Every structure is written in structure tokens, then in C-alpha cells.
Amino acid sequence: MIGFLKGMRVTLRQLPKKKVTLQYPDVKPEWPERFRGVHRFIPELCIACNQCARICPTSCISLAGERDENKKMKITTFDINFDICILCDLCTEVCPTEAILMSDTFEMARYSRDDLYLDMHWLYENEQRYEEAHPERVAEKAGRAE
Amino acid sequence: MGNWQTQPLTLPSVLAMVLGAVIVLVLALGVVTYTIYVQRKLLGWMQLRIGPNRVGPLGLFQTIADIIKLLIKEDVVPASADRPLFLLAPVLAFVPSFLVLAVVPFSAHHVFTANLSIGVLFYLAVSAITIHGVMLAGWASNNKYALIGGMRSAAQMLSYEIPLGLSLVGVVLMAGSLNLNDIVLAQQHSGWWNVIPQILGFLVFLVASTAELNRTPFDLPEAESELVAGYHVEYSGFRFAFFMLTEYVYLFAMAGLCATLFLGGWSGPWLPGWLWFAIKVVLFIFFQFWLQATLPRMRVDQLMTFSWKVLLPVSLVNLVLTGFIKAFW
Amino acid sequence: MGGKRGNDVSLIDEQNQIRTEEMLLNVGPQHPSTHGVFRLVVKISGETILDAEPVIGYLHRGTEKLAEDLQYTQIIPYTDRLDYLAAMLNNYAFCHTVEQALELEIPERAEYLRIIVMELQRVASHLLFIGTYLLDLGAMSPFLYVFADREQIVQLFNEICGARLTYNYLRVGGVKWDAPPGWLDKVEAFVRYMQERLSMYDELITGNEIFLARTRGIGVFDTDTALAHGMSGINLRSTGFRWDLRRNKPYSIYDRFDFEIPVGQNGDCFDRYYLHLLEMNESLKIVAQALQQVPDGPVLGKVPKLIRVPAGEYYSGIEGARGELGFYIVSDGKDKPYRMKIRKPSFLNLQLLPKLLRGQNMANLIAILGAVDIVLGEVDA
């Protein structure tokens, strides 16, 4: 009979303890810097090398580029079909110019699958959102680059 | 109002009875509402959660919101269910749970309840009717899980009725009366509550009442991980609400019975009687939730073995001991 | 439905015995205790199980076939989704096979980081087993306690690789990222915290009389049966057979650590539960030792950009959270495997289930199924 009384003591001791509940929609979780949320994309940096599209295990990235007046490749279309993206982070790993990166946007519930087709503009806006939310991370990066 | 039950039936007394019933019903509903709230809060706190907190301050209106939700839900009767029985079952389960409140003395004077001279017997007899409701629900749903759940609960409630009854007999012997108010008075006179001289009976009562209430660790009829939801798996909306209501009204009634028989009912120093009664009821209910937070569920065959091979002999021993004590002192 | 109403079927047969009817009960695919989409067609008489037939495949995604069209690096995120409670171990099992094929040299620091994340993953997976198992048996609180503890491991993983469930952290030849500053100290603090918590679980669950009555002597099988059915991991060790690949066929750097291989005696559900608890303690011991020894250095070895496995057949198995987790790769020298076969411990452990269930009652079904500890993502792959 002792065993179950011990268990009763354990549960009673939890009663005054600090609760772990996160009041989610009111309080957002703090994501670490490496968190892999929805992509963000910086069009100026992209050289349309197509490496991200090739490494993607689910082939969810499609892109197209053209040469500008200086004969440099410029991105014209960059779409991520977020419907099938598995957030594996391989695209950012292969990107030579760090044009595609992961952000901490994670709320992606939509009413329609079409809304999950993310184009360049959406991804760039996401980048701007990220910069606004984490100025210190972006500044740190700029400092390292120089 | 005192003794209107013994007088001839007149219009004022009929009105008084109806008024009393309505007040007890409202009281029971209020208690159930906040029992559910407290249950969810307590379980939450014991599980490192915060429990209901969105509806109203501290989530105080959560249960009310739940009730409203259940009431306005679509009333679904499965096409292959036995329709009349399916509709009858929740009523059959609920009515006795409310009836038994008629004999529980909330305070020193039976203001709203009946001063029945066979109170204990009445409680046991009426509460047994609920089993029929539960069994009917399991059968009429035409669902395999519901059927197993219904059969389990019938077997379980019948097995535990006996040790429960026998543990009460000890108390009745002590007081020499089946009237619940007399039992409280007897405890007041003897100077100690029955929980001390009847400790064996009290333990048997605690276990058997938990089983009667279908609460953890005896919640087999609605064992979620095995039977999905047991006998009320096909019920939804206000019919489901009736089953839940039954469960919690019984919890309240059983707490009242426990307080009356073993903890001295409304008697106690300094504080008013109804407050003492409330404190004892809350203690019993807290204990039930505490068990629920800790224990896993028992198995059907172990449950039966435990009732017949452990509880029954213990309650018989208790009865014999009580008899000896009463005979020689 | 059980009975026939209103017709002239006699309730008493010729031998004057009450006629009972067998009932076919579908447990799952939507059932709270099947841990995913698993279906069990049970033939019961009363509450006694006469026969049980598992039906699997609801979560089949064709990982093995998909792998034939993917480069080796691209397969790693797919392995995350096999046993989604132990993604790090799946990552490792796959990377290890490819590394063996390529005969790669793994940097020391990467090996230690791998050991740390793998053993933490084992703890997270075992914790969840304990929580869900107790939930199956009807106790609610342990489930929430383990989730609070597992959350800390998940947070640690989130910091090191940016994901909470599908990590994709390991790479052929090393790991994706070095540990962020301060991460190792956090792990150390967690190990100390977790050791305390384990004794709390022990106190809450192990001594409970109802729990003992529900699990002792239930679902018993012996070593021969287990071996004949290809069982591994805790299911095999619970029968008293000391077989742990970390010790018996050391891979990675497990030979550098001092740890025990706990084994059971009776091969029943209780042993399987208790071994999970003991193994968590051993895993924490390994993490603590690894934290002491972890050197500085690179975390990714010299790996060609496009991995081409030389033609041939390769197999390597590791001690996963549920048993021997192995990848068998047939390569024709290209950058994609010609054929990949996964040795899925959950799938093999499940094979004994119908035999174990025969003659038991409905409540034991849950206890036995829960103790086998399957993850449907892996069973169905």
C-alpha cells in the first residue's frame, strides 16, 4: 500500500509548482537564432544558380533568372510551394550568397492551398519582417560580412 | 418548516415541496458546475498546467460555456440505435442521482430535504436504479464499445454496492437508526465522528464509493484508452450532458453521504452547520480528484476480485466487530 | 452488434449452456491507444480476445522507394520522418551506413556532438514511452510531466539545429552545425535536472500497486521467441538477453564510455517499462561523460560535395530507441542509392503481437500493445 501513497505525495507536491503553460496566442514562443521557420529571401543577393532548387528533396522551389546589362545573373521568379516544403534547411545550406535563409515565421495555417504558394515578394516581405523583429541578428551578420 | 412531511397534503405544503425541490436542484447544478471547474483547475495544477482560464475571470465561466455548448449542439440519435431506449437512458440515469439528494441533511434542520426514517436504505435503493440507465445506454447505442462499457459498469456497480452497503451497516449499528439526521446526532452525542470507531468501514466506504462513482482508478466503464468513451460513446449534446450531470451529482451526493455518515455531517464547533457540511464535502471531492491525478486504472477482473475477495470480507469483519462492541459496551 | 433481438434464436444450446456470440471489434485506426493510425481487428468473446490481426500501412509514404530518386544528402530529412520520436537516431543510422561505405573519417568533435544528441534523443523517446504507456493504463499526470521534461530536450535541439521534431541535423561526415555558445552547459544542467526527475518518476509510477498489478506477468515472452521474431532493443532485453549494439557491436565512439546494459528477468510489460527508466539513466550517464570529454575542432569531415557511394551493398545497424535500426543500401556507384531497405525495429517488434494477445482480455490488449512501443511512422515507413 505504500507505493501508491508515495505517488499521491508526488502529485500533491506539483500543486504549488510553477506552471509550464505558454499562453500561446497572447505570448509567442521565443525561437532561437537557428530556428527553421518559413524562408526569407533577398533578391539582390541571388545569382540564380539553381542550387537550392536542385538540392530540395521535395522539389518545391522553382526559379528563373536572366542576365542584366552587366551580364550578371538576376533573379526574376522565385517560388516556394510551401505545401510540400519540409523545412529541411538544405536550400539555405547550399546557397552560396545566403540569398535564401530561414526566418522565425511559423504560423502558416491558411484556408486554401493556393495561399501556400509563396512568391519572391512574399519571401522578401518576410525578410523585412525578420529584420524588423531581430535587428541585432542582422547587424551582427552585416558586421561579420565587412 | 420543519415537519411538513407528516402533515396532510395541503396547497402550501405542495408549494413548499416544489420550492424545496427547485432550490435543491439549483444548488446541485451550481455545485456540479463548480465541481467540474475545480476538478479541471486542480488536475491542471497537479499536472503543471493552469487549467481553464479563458472564459471569465480565472476561467470561472468555463463550465457554463461548456453547458451552453452542449445544450445548443445538434441532437444526434444514431440511425441503428434502439430509439426509445436510447432516449430513455439518460433520464433513467439522472433522475435517481437527483432523488438521493432528498435524504442528505445539508444542515441541522431538514429545510429542503426529507427527514426520511429509512434514509440510508433509500439512498442505496434509489442509486441502484442508475445502473439501468447506464446499461440501457450501452445497449441501445448499438455500438460495440458502448456495449462493453455498459456491461462493465453494470458488473462493477453491482459488485461494489454490496461492500458499500455493508460498510454503511456498521454506521447504522453505531447509531441505531437508518435516519441520516439521527446518525449525525448520534455522532454529536458520542463526541467523536464515526471515522474513528468505524475506520475499517470508512476505508471500505472510500474505496467502494469511488468504484460506485466510476472514478479513477475504477473508471473502467468509460476507460478512454480501451473503450474510447464507454457507454456514452454515441451520445452527444444535452443527452451527453445528462450523463455528465449524473456523474457529478452523484459525486456531490456521495460526498454528502460520506460527510454525514463518517465525518459528523453538519456538526462541528464554532462554524455554522452548513459550512461544516460544505467543508467535509469539499474534502471528499478533493480526495477524489487527487486520486484521479495519480492513479492508473484497474483491470476488470482485478476489480471484481478486489470487491469480492478483499472488500467484502473486510466489511463483514467490520460488521462483526461493530456488533461485538455494541453488544458489550 | 452483440445480440439478436426479437427473433427465435435460442439463448440455450443443446448442451444447456448459455450461447455466447463472438464479436469482431475494430480497434483503430482511430482509437486513442493505438499510438497513431494502427488498426487491430480483434475477435472477442465477452472481453476475452480469441484472435487479433494487426492491419498496418495507413501511414505508408514509400520512403524506401522515394530514396531511390534522391541524393544521399536529400535522404536525411526523410529519415527524420520514420520514427519521428527519435529522428536524431534515424539520421545517424543512415549517415553511419553511408560513412561506412565511403570509409570516411569523422572529426572527433562531431562524434561527441552526435553522441550527445543521440543519447538525449533516446531519453526524449523513452520519456514519451513512459508517458503514453501510463496514459494507456489510465494515469493522466505522468503524460504531462514527461511532456514538460521532453520539452526541454526539444528546446535544446531547437537551439542546436533549429527544429523541434524533424532535426535533419546530422550530415554524412559530421554534423550540420557546431553547438551554439553555452549549449553544452545547458545540456549539463539538464542532465543533472533529469536525473532528479527520474527518481520522481520512479516514485510516482514504479511502486504503484495498481500499475504493478496491470503490468507484472502480462505479455510475457521468452528470449527464444523474441529472437525467432527478430525482436531487438528493450523488447529483447526484457527477456534477460543482454544484447545492445552499443556494447555488442560498438559503433561511433561508444567504446569510450562507461555504461550498463540493464536487462529484465521476466520478459513482461513491467520489465519493459522499467528498462526504459533504467536506460534513460544510462543515457544520461553517457551524455555526462561525453560532455567531459568533448574536444574542440571541426564538426564536418572532408566530404565530397556530391556523395557517390562506390558500387556494392552496405548494411549497418545501430541501437535505436526501439531496437536495431539498420539501413541497407545497394549502390551502383551513382549519387543515388539503387535500392534502400530500412530495418525498422518497430515493425519487427510488432510481429509477435497477435500471439501475445490471444487469450488476453481487452484491458491487457492496451497494456501489451503499449509496452511493445511502436511508432507508426516507422512501422509503415
How is this structure best described in words?
The complex is a heterotrimer of chains A (146), B (329) and C (381). Chain A is of the alpha+beta class and 146 residues long. Chain A has five helices and five strands; from the N terminus they run αβαββαββαα. The longest helix of chain A is centred in the C-terminal third of the chain and has 14 residues, at 120-133. Chain B has helices at 11-46, 62-71, 83-99, 119-127, 129-140, 144-175, 180-190, 199-212, 224-227, 237-262, 273-294, 300-328. With 381 residues, chain C is α+β, with helices and mostly antiparallel strands. Chain C has a single domain, classed as Cytochrome-c3 Hydrogenase, chain B. Chain C has 15 helices and eight strands. In chain C, the strands form three sheets. Chain C has a three-stranded antiparallel beta sheet. A three-stranded antiparallel beta sheet of chain C has the order 6-7-8. Chain C is globular. Chains in contact: A-B, A-C, B-C. At the B-C interface, α6, α9, α11 and α12 of B face α4, α5, α7 and α14 of C.
Strand count, sense and barrel status of the largest sheet of chain A are:
3 strands, antiparallel
Strand order of the largest sheet of chain C: 1-2-3
Proportion of beta-strand residues of chain C: 5-15%
Instruction: Give the topology string of chain A: H per helix, E per strand.
Output: HEHEEHEEHH
Secondary-structure content class of chain C: alpha+beta
Radius of gyration of chain A: 22 Å
What share of residues of chain C is helical?
40-55%
Strand tally of chain A: 5
CATH architecture call of the domain at 39-134 in chain A: 2-Layer Sandwich
Largest interface: B-C, 32 and 31 residues
Low-confidence stretches of chain A are: none
Can you identify the CATH class of chain C? Mainly Alpha
Helix content of chain A: 25-40%
